[in-house]
Design brief:
With 161 residues, the chain is an alpha+beta fold. The chain has five helices and six strands; from the N terminus they run βαββαββαααβ. A six-stranded antiparallel sheet has the order 2-3-1-6-5-4, sandwiched between helices. It starts with a strand and ends with a strand.
């Protein structure tokens, strides 16, 4: 088992941290395939479960493809905002520039982005992923980013071992 990643939107760091308290540390995305996630205790949050997609490397490479810019580890800026225990879970706030880049993805870009992203080392262990396989993943993160941008919210990443 590896590291799990949930991405969600929240109005600010304080609200995101309060959500962690309400969810007893997460996970945030509790129902797969839903834009509005109804978590334990009636907590509702707009989140996506991206299991193995970390912010600096895998998500950062998608951002680099959208921007048509070289990838670097600091392309998606993140800051640790919550870490109750040394061994996790952790909560990171992502920069609004990455949110806005992801929000800008159009339907016409999906096939090319999926093909390029499916060739990165983190996904293509045995060769490139089948064409179009990452389209739903890109649609999910782009949709979340678009809703966050439009609401004036920020993106957050919850992760746990």
């Amino acid at each position: 088992m590896g590291v799990l990643y949930d991405y969600f939107r929240s109005v600010d760091d304080d609200a995101a941290i309060a959500l962690m308290d309400e969810l007893d540390g997460g996970p945030v995305a509790r129902a797969a395939g839903s834009g509005g996630i109804d978590g334990a205790g009636g907590v509702a949050v707009d989140a996506v479960d991206l299991k193995w997609i970390d912010p600096p490397v895998a998500l950062g490479q998608l951002v680099s493809f959208v921007r048509d810019a070289p990838w670097r580890a600091s392309l998606v800026q993140s800051r640790l905002i919550w870490n109750p225990e040394e061994h996790g879970p952790w909560l990171f706030g992502l920069d609004d520039a990455a949110r806005d880049t992801l929000a800008s993805i159009s339907g016409g870009q999906l096939p090319e982005l999926s093909a390029r992203w499916g060739r990165i080392d983190e996904f293509a262990h045995s060769g490139p992923l089948p064409e179009g396989e990452l389209v739903p993943v890109i649609e999910a993160i782009a949709g979340l980013a678009r809703r966050a941008r439009d609401a004036g919210d920020h993106l957050y990443c919850w992760c746990c071992l």
